[in-house]
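Let us walk through a complete example step by step. Step one is to write down the protein sequence. Step two is to encode the small molecule, pyridoxal-5'-phosphate, as a SMILES string so that its atoms and bonds are unambiguous. Step three, shown after the inputs, is the structure prediction itself.
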Amino acid sequence: MVEPAIRPQPHRQYQSRLATEILRRLDQVLPVGDGPYPLHEPLFAGNEKKYLAECIDTGWVSSAGPFVERFEAELSSFTGLHAVACVNGTAALHTCLLLSGVSPDDEVLVPTVTFVATANAVSYCGAVPHFVDSEADTLGVDPDRLAAYLDATLEPRNDDVWRNKVSKRPVRALIVTHIFGHPPKLDRLKAVADQYGIALIEDAAEALGTFHESAHAGSIGDCAALSFNGNKTITAGGGGAIITRDPDVARQAKHLTTTARVADGFDWTHDTVGYNYRLPNINAALACAQLEQLPRFLAAKRRLADDYIAAFDDLPEAAVISEQAQAHSNYWLNTLLLKEKDRGTRDHILTETNSTGYHCRPLWTPMHRLPMYRDCPAMELTTAQSLFESVISLPSGPALRLG
Ligand SMILES: Cc1ncc(COP(=O)(O)O)c(C=O)c1O
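Step three: the predicted structure of the complex.
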């Protein structure tokens, strides 16, 4: 993979003027004197202490206990999907891939614009990530370019499995990520996956509370992963879930993530190599308390997003990413997209905002540029590179509008 050219830096005075304009708008939304403002910190304003004390008082702190089932039931009721709690979002993704039949030496289509866990979960299966490009309006996989690319890259075999013409490996699944809570164009991506008979897995780690039309994230793919890491909309300390509309997939997910134990009288028996991906009861207790507050958190995050969008509306050099017509985003991370000519200013702006007390963050280094994934198959990834140079995520926690 060719390393990207270093973009020429705009004149320093120009960079400072733009950073000043951005800081002025941040100050309108989050007054500088009340800072510093972390990127996304957890807010514990409900029954967290009460439920945690209940775990300690009863001794149910580990891999069994009533909060796990309660959390699964409440998450299921919120999303309208079957929900299986597990230890983190990465484990949830790994489980989704295993349940989609991903095996060693398969290829899985993965956006290069994603967190490293998405690609790592593919590696845990012994499969190879095959990187695809994203689009600027949703930050998700570009369905039109994907369709054209697969048309040129895959060939059918008589076993009905489509293979990469060059590597000859079967292409088994497509993972799409809801970046910062924005759903990708799921209907079109599902049509592309169906055309090639490959599974569609939604990495919805950042997307609890995100809807595509009226369906919660995870409703269109075969299965999806959620994360409840400390920086997510709600947290379990660490935690995740597999969500799916298919009860059979949910049943298999529960089995696989709980060591594949078969209840058989007094016998302690397992029928396959399962995983200890169980969510401890103490984490589920925290998750239950947080889930009770989710509607308030989502409303607060939406108010903050509206304020950012209004404050940056008149800045020609950058725009805040807003939800598409078909989407209802959870606005997990509000994000500024610098215009083409201003991309060289990203690091200067990050330095200025962070030193003023606004914890802002760039996009992850694209997966195809990481040393372990540099030699993986990939389509042309030009939009990913420009997104990498132009994304600045802004402070976005619910406390910023609940305080
Ligand atoms: C897009 C994405 N995928 C996967 C994960 C992995 O989740 P976890 O940290 O819970 O393992 C995260 C978050 O951390 C994420 O942002």
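Step four is interpretation. DSSP finds twelve helices and 18 strands in the chain.
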